[in-house]
């Protein structure tokens, strides 16, 4: 029984590293184009999308935006006709940018704060997979100071240092019962930090076709002194001691993007991005507990992720001097292999649709809005560690808005 409890408790990662939780919501204009835009010097969100394009932005600016994200997932256990749904929770991915440079426009300094990884899911305490997960709340907040330099009139390079602040709270039931019939419960929560970088090059050709190469590095996030909290019957307390701590290292993958921007007319530009996400770094999840018992030993849980990729096509159309319209489509390939799909990351290949609009009230004040939709394909899976067997289907909705001030 003790070994079974341990395997159930530790077999699923508490930091969601699936394509579905790589949050591609870092700039409202780019979101409106399905996330494409690395080869366009659109706005201060280029601090994230391509630091090399930042020096081609004419004005200094500050902006902030948010995308309330609704994650709708349903699970049907193999052999059952009952559908189980996540509870309605809204995660708030956000982005904020500041940009400043001299009038000569040869260089720019920028600061970005954004959430490239995160998730919020609550399956409830009584669903069929409660021993794998009941709820999860995680955030990865990146802070990125950036320098961009225009080395010629048509070529810009830029790079930024990345500091990651991570927070996680995961809860699941334990297969033991109190006298009143309720299940035991486990909570793992903590904070961590990691470091990385983001660099890119931007090229504007004589025909005004633009190219981009961008690389965002892997960020190893280290969680130290996380709290492991167990609510179990008194007879099991010695095996799950109060006040226990754990440490773990969690790799957030690097991403390489190739982009192209094609002017179709003076008012319309087409953007295409192809991204390769190096998820293969996530081979296993290892826990190191401060206090070990016969039921709570340090453990390693295989994940064996493969690399993922995405392809995004968007269009930006200036309908007038004040109004801009945007739309985009995309497709993303999941890194989660068969046998490793979990309730935290019920991931599969996905289709992306988006739309957006921007309006300039004055030469200084601008508002942008977007709507982002992902259709994650149905995936029938049996997890090789937990034995959870059934079909997941997920939809993601994310409206968004940002405000920008320029000078």
Structural write-up:
The structure is a single chain. The protein has 407 residues and is mostly beta strands. 4% of the residues lie in helices and 57% in strands. It contains 3 helices and 21 strands. Strands 1-5-6-7-8-9-10-13-14-17-18-19-20-21 form a 14-stranded antiparallel barrel. A hairpin with a 5-residue loop joins strand 5 (94-101) and strand 6 (107-122). The longest helix is centred in the N-terminal third of the chain and has 9 residues, at 2-10. It is elongated and about 75 Å long. It starts with a helix and ends with a strand. The relative contact order is 0.20. Mean pLDDT is 88; it is low at 1-18.
Brief rundown of the structure:
Helices cover 4% and strands 57% of the residues. The protein is built from three helices and 21 strands.
Q: What is the beta-strand fraction?
A: over 45%
Integer average pLDDT? 88
Please bin the fraction of helical residues: under 10%
**Helix/strand order:** HHHEEEEEEEEEEEEEEEEEEEEE
Number of strands: 21
> Order of strands across the widest beta sheet?
1-5-6-7-8-9-10-13-14-17-18-19-20-21
Structural class: mainly beta
Query: What is the CA-CA span between the terminal residues?
Result: 66 Å
Would you spell out the secondary-structure blueprint of this structure?
Blueprint: H1 2-10, H2 28-31, H3 46-49, E1 61-66, E2 69-77, E3 83-85, E4 90-91, E5 94-101, E6 107-122, E7 135-150, E8 155-177, E9 183-204, E10 210-216, E11 219-231, E12 244-252, E13 255-263, E14 268-277, E15 284-289, E16 299-302, E17 308-318, E18 323-333, E19 350-360, E20 365-382, E21 389-406
Antiparallel strand pairs: 1-5, 1-21, 2-3, 2-4, 2-21, 5-6, 6-7, 7-8, 8-9, 9-10, 9-11, 10-13, 11-12, 12-15, 13-14, 14-17, 15-16, 17-18, 18-19, 19-20, 20-21
């Amino acid at each position: 029984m003790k070994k079974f409890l341990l395997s159930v408790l530790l077999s699923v990662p508490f930091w969601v590293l699936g394509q579905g939780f790589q949050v591609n919501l870092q700039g409202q204009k780019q979101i409106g184009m399905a996330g494409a835009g690395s080869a366009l010097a659109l706005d201060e969100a280029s601090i994230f999308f391509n630091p090399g394009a930042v020096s081609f932005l004419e004005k200094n600016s500050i902006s902030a935006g948010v995308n309330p994200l609704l994650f709708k997932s349903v699970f049907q256990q193999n052999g059952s006709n009952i559908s189980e749904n996540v509870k309605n929770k809204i995660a708030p991915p956000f982005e904020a940018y500041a940009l400043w440079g001299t009038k000569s426009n040869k260089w720019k300094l920028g600061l970005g704060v954004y959430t490239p990884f995160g998730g919020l899911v609550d399956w409830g305490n009584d669903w069929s997979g409660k021993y794998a997960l009941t709820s999860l709340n995680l955030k990865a907040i990146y802070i990125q100071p950036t320098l961009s330099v225009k080395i010629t009139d048509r070529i810009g390079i830029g790079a930024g240092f990345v500091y990651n602040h991570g927070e996680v709270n995961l809860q699941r039931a334990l297969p033991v019962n109190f006298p009143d019939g309720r299940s035991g419960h486990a909570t793992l929560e903590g904070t961590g930090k990691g470091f990385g970088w983001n660099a890119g090059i931007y090229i504007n050709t004589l025909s005004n076709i633009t190219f981009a190469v961008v690389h965002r590095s892997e960020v190893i996030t280290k969680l130290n002194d996380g709290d492991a909290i167990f609510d179990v019957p008194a007879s099991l307390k010695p095996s799950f001691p109060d006040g226990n701590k754990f440490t773990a290292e969690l790799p957030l993958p690097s991403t390489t993007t190739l982009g192209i921007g094609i002017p179709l007319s003076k008012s319309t530009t087409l953007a295409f991005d192809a991204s390769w996400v190096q998820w293969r770094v996530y081979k296993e999840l290892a826990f190191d507990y401060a206090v070990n018992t016969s039921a709570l030993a340090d453990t390693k849980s295989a994940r064996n992720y493969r690399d993922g990729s995405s392809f995004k096509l968007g269009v930006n159309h200036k309908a007038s001097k004040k109004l801009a319209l945007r739309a985009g489509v995309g497709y993303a390939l999941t890194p989660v292999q068969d046998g490793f799909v979990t309730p935290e990351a019920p991931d599969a290949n996905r289709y992306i649709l988006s739309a957006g609009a921007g309006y300039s009230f004055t030469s200084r004040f601008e508002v942008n809005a977007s709507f982002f939709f992902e259709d994650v394909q149905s995936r029938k899976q049996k997890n090789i560690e937990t034995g959870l067997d059934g079909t997941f289907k997920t939809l993601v909705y994310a409206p968004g808005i940002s405000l920008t001030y320029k000078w």
